[in-house]
Amino acid sequence: MLYSYEEQLRQREMLYQQQQQRLYREVSDEKERVAETARRQRSEVDALQRRLEDTHASLVASVRAEYETTKAEQDKRHQVKIVV
């Protein structure tokens, strides 16, 4: 009976260790998956930020050009009024 108890105890310990190793592997796999997801999302955010910066620069240039054109037209009209 003592042998059986010791054997059961060993089997339980072995099962416990196997379960612990499996859980460690699962946690490690999950950490790796989360890290990969974070890398991918960081890359996407960087790409979106570059697009935003490019769009912003384009918009600023467009508004500046429109302003300069409008200002030149207004100055020209003002000069015409002064001459007349």
Q: Which characteristics define this entry?
A:
84 residues; mainly alpha; 1 helix
Question: How would you summarize the topology of this molecule?
Answer:
Elements: H1 2-83
Low-confidence stretches: none
Order of H and E elements:
H
Which secondary-structure class do the elements indicate? mainly alpha
Strand content: under 5%
Number of helices: 1
Rg calculated over all Cα atoms: 36 Å
Q: What can you tell me about this protein's structure?
A:
The chain is mainly alpha-helical and 84 residues long. The chain is built from one helix and no strands. The model has no long low-confidence stretch (mean pLDDT 93).
Quick structural summary:
Helices cover 98% and strands 0% of the residues. The chain has 84 residues and is mainly alpha-helical. The chain starts with a helix and ends with a helix.
